[in-house]
Amino acid sequence: MDNFLDKHRSRVVYFQEKYRKRGKNNHKAEIPDQLFSKCPFCQELIYTKTLIEQAFVCPECGKYYPMSARDRIDQLTDSDSFREIDRTLTSVNPLDFPGYNEKLVQAQEETGEREAFIGGWAKIDNIPLCVGVMDSHFLMGSMGSAIGEKIARLMELSIKRKSPLLIVSSSGGARMQEGILSLMQMAKTVALLTKHNESGLLFISLLTHPTTGGVSASFAMLGDIILAEKGALIGFAGKRVIQQTIKEDLPDGFQTAEFLMDHGMIDMVIDRKNARAVISQLLKFHEQRKNHVSN
Amino acid sequence: MCPIEPAWKKVQYARHPLRPTAKKVIEYLAPDFVELKGDRLYANDEAIVGGIGSVDGYVMTIIAEEKGTSIEERIRHHFGMPHPEGYRKAMRLAKQAEKFQRPVLFLIDTPGAYPGVEAEERGQAEAIATSIKTLFSIKTPIVSVILSEGGSGGALAIGIADYLIMMENATYSILSPEGFAAILYKDASLAKDVADTMKLTATDILHFGVIDEIIPEPEGGWHREVTQPMPLIKQAILKALNRLKTVPLERLIETRIKRYRKMGLYFEDEESQ
């Protein structure tokens, strides 16, 4: 099991540091090594191995930590079944936007990823599928040209292989620094999804915290089946913008996964720990479907 | 060509209170326009005006974002910011156009989709996403004109087209300059300064390959000479539709999807090929 921990160590250290920076008090001295992680929500010290086994859900307070794309793939797919595609596809700076190059480099260094989206093919309980995961640690998971292209290619691969598609979203929306081209990625991903849909293939969209703006208003809300992680923020407009428009307080639980379910916008709110089992079951149903209708 | 003006000036032209709104353009293009209302699900959103009209005898479905002119009108039209029911009405009418084999003309002028509690409750994100998806499957020619403000997803939701035209002083952007400055610099008052960086003018958008044509405006903005560009708008629309009607419908959809498939700029190492 030591290898298991080693494999995740860099990422664990990363999010420890991230939350340390965020927290008011610096408890660095209390954590001698990476064996323990401090929960950013309840401040409890958690044995890191337990945390990974619990899919980054705090065993003390039950809050969900944001997961990196690779941790999510490890959690959802059969071990060592994931084969990444388009690994080197990277953003450029189409508007020559000041500071964007530096931000990209910084995000790449912090996460060890080229972009805020990882795609490829894998198996879940031995059922092959195409899977893509967004990573909110990388510039808030915002969607620019590179991510749009990666998603488009993943959809094309899914069509080519006649396999189901799973996309796990966690994104603040379109990437502002790429201007109109970011907006066009909404159109691009939906264009390819239209073809995917016509091919009769299954698209499961799993919404995690947060899924907002241009991502929620494009492919993410177009799943044949839409699942959302408990408590995730999901919506179109930002809370601050809405507050400025209506000039009153927002209702409790506004724009949470539960709120969306109550309003008929998603199929199911799921516990993170059940995500794999639910997806696996849905994939199984869709494997069998052709036996039940004649055509 | 007109001299290049700073982007912020164009933002101001695009938002000018005397600049003609979609209704004025429809009055000119299709004097016989019949408005058709409602999404058949919830309500009639006046931020989107839709119906049937003929432009020089060419019958088409016209769907427009309308801001209104007087204060009362603007409130009634939600300042041109559609709710989900607006987009659902638009798609109902677009599908109707497909059924009766007439083209669709979209006129875009919105600061963005309405940001509100009810809009979220009724699925603003889903409504926009579904609009985009619907426009990629409708088998009839689509022409769009960005009249003034092309605000983000609110504009894109009715902005998927086979031919896209933009007025010279119209803008098309990921977010309003105010919102952009607020998000990236935490200060909305920097809007003036970020407008140039955002590359939101018609020339910029043409450069990125997102639109096909720019229609020139009178010196000092469209509000100076409201009727002047009208014949140019009509000509551009009819020319595009006359060309598009010769394209077989299957190929029309393929070309539409390919057009958006190509959009974007990125970099890739050779080893991954």
CATH topology of the largest domain in chain A: 2-enoyl-CoA Hydratase, Chain A, domain 1
Characterize the main sheet of chain B. 8 strands, mixed
Q: Can you say what the CATH homologous superfamily of chain B is?
A: 2-enoyl-CoA Hydratase, Chain A, domain 1
- Judging from the principal axes of the Cα atoms, what is the shape of chain A? globular
Return the structural class of chain A.
alpha/beta
The overall strand count of chain B is: 9
Which structural category fits the helices and strands of chain B? alpha/beta
The domain tally of chain A reads 2
Q: How many helices of chain A does DSSP assign?
A: 10
**Average of the residue pLDDT scores of chain B:** 95
Count of discrete domains of chain B: 1
Return residue spans of chain A where pLDDT drops below 50 for at least 5 consecutive residues: 1-5, 9-16, 18-32
Report strand % of chain B.
15-25%
**Which architecture of chain B would the CATH scheme give at its second level?**
Alpha-Beta Complex
- Average pLDDT number of chain A: 88
Low-confidence stretches of chain B: none
Helix and strand succession of chain B? Answer: HHEEEHHEHHEHEEHHHEHHE
Distance between the termini of chain A: 50 Å
- Name the chain pair with the biggest interface and residue counts per chain: A-B, 65 and 54 residues
